[in-house]
Design goal:
Glucose Oxidase, domain 1, Rossmann fold, seven-stranded mixed β-barrel, 22 strands, binds glutamine, amino-acid biosynthesis
Length: 437
């Protein structure tokens, strides 16, 4: 196989030598399945790994990105050259917050490895408790530094997301893996690995009951609901929501890693719910893709996806705080997207498109469909990224509250024949959910 080795950028190598506590004498090599190899130095865990090599253009928020479950199975290349300069905060929720239990986006680092031009071992931030290198080491995640991330990014942009291996220490001396040795995370159902195994409840005294199907939820999605006083029940991704729908005022579908085709059953279940239920439904990223598949749209794999905190999207329709014709700057992390088709399935319309590549960034139910369903490919909850679309959470909960009020006033069960179970007495402890007969 054609094999090229790119050496480190000299300027970066010199700056590396000034950092203490890195494994700077320990070699590391990033191999791409397409035949290129990039030699640098190890930081973080002294272990080798496989993954899907992707790049993110985010300038800050490396801790949030690395703990985002949607990055599961990915070797994350940061295009910003200096990463680690503000260290890593503790991942315990501050005592004044009763919400989600973690400060970052999940309990631990989710990506397989990180690729950084110039990792900073010296860090400075009032919240920082350790360096990026020591955090990676504690979570057994390897990193490589001193490589030309510009060259890697240009390759990935041209040839698309590419399977890779980060070889560390003695492994770095070994030849590049054979094609069949590369691990392809898209073959696996990564959602099943990261979703909660048991239902649990946050903020049980909230005034509106929201069920969350967890495909790999970022903590800030849960925080964004709880901070707007929703009582949030987080359910496993494959939970039979249809059977318990009567207990909730709205349904939320989260982000999640991997190929959305692994979630086709969830989409088919959702289709059943959407046929019989008119309460509000909101989905983000994987959740949006699941809504789209339920609506009859196809999902496809993009060349290199969109990852970064500076993706402009144009609103095509007005809804709540979103105004048609405005451009919102958004946080994104996805490899797949819904196909734009003409006409759209009956009862659905495009909501946003990406200003860079014209990909579908959102869909919604039409005003005359009698439904209140929204899906967005980007991340309104940010963490990291701009807060341009954060009020979509307020919009969603306002719709859930309005719907609940109508029910209260009319005293009618909108599900017709469906039997309404008495609300469960939830606590914060994980507990089984009663399934309506
Ligand atoms: N952040 C997400 O939910 C990503 C969704 C899906 N895994 C994709 O890559 O497109």
């Amino acid at each position: 196989m054609f094999f090229r080795t790119f050496s480190s950028v000299p300027r970066l190598s010199r700056s590396l030598a000034t950092h203490a506590n890195l494994n700077t004498r320990i070699p590391a090599v990033l191999h791409l399945k397409t035949g290129e190899s990039f030699a640098g130095s190890s930081f973080g865990a002294l272990t080798s790994t496989y993954g899907e090599t992707v790049f993110s253009t985010s300038i800050t928020s490396y801790t949030e990105s690395m703990t985002d479950p949607s990055y599961r199975g990915q070797i994350l290349v940061f295009t910003t050259p200096l990463i680690g300069n503000y260290g890593v905060p503790s991942n315990k929720t501050p005592v004044d917050s009763q919400d989600v239990g973690v400060y970052l986006e999940s309990e631990g680092i989710q990506c397989s490895a990180v690729v950084v031009a110039d990792v900073a071992e010296k860090f400075s931030h009032h919240r920082a408790v350790e360096s990026l290198a020591s955090w990676c080491k504690r979570h057994n995640v390897p990193g490589i530094t001193g490589v030309d991330t510009r060259a890697i990014t240009r390759l990935l942009r041209d040839q698309g997301t590419t399977l890779g291996r980060l070889a560390v220490g003695e492994d770095a001396q070994a030849p590049a893996p054979m094609d069949e040795e590369y691990w392809d995370p898209s073959e696996e159902n990564l959602v099943a690995q990261v979703s909660t195994k048991e239902p649990y409840v946050l903020n049980p005294t909230g005034d509106v009951k929201i069920a969350v199907l967890d495909f790999g939820a970022k903590a800030n999605i849960l925080r964004s609901l709880v901070r707007r006083n929703a009582a949030v029940t987080v359910l496993p991704w494959d939970f039979d929501f249809h059977a318990v729908r009567a207990q909730y005022d709205g349904l939320f579908l989260t982000n999640g890693p991997g190929d959305p085709r692994h979630c086709m059953d969830a989409a088919l279940n959702l289709r059943k719910t959407l046929e019989e239920w008119d309460k509000p439904v909101f989905g983000i990223c994987m959740g949006h893709q699941v809504i789209g598949m339920a609506a009859g749209l196809d999902a496809y794999r993009m060349t290199f996806g969109n990852r970064g905190h500076n993706q402009p999207v144009l609103a095509l329709a007005s809804s709540g705080s979103i105004k048609a014709g405005r451009v919102y700057v958004t946080s994104q992390n996805h490899q797949y997207a819904l196909k734009l088709q003409d006409p759209f399935p009956a009862g659905w319309e495009p909501f946003f498109i990406n200003c860079n590549d014209s990909s579908v960034e959102g869909i919604k139910s039409t005003a005359d469909s009698g439904k209140k369903v929204w899906g967005v490919q980007f991340h309104p909850e940010s963490a990291g990224g701009p807060l341009d679309t954060i009020e979509m959470f307020t919009d969603f909960l306002a719709e859930c509250r309005a719907h609940k009020m109508q029910l209260g006033l009319g005293g009618q069960d909108v599900m017709g024949a469906a039997k309404v179970e008495p609300a469960l007495a939830f606590t914060n402890a994980p507990q089984p959910i009663a399934v309506a007969a």
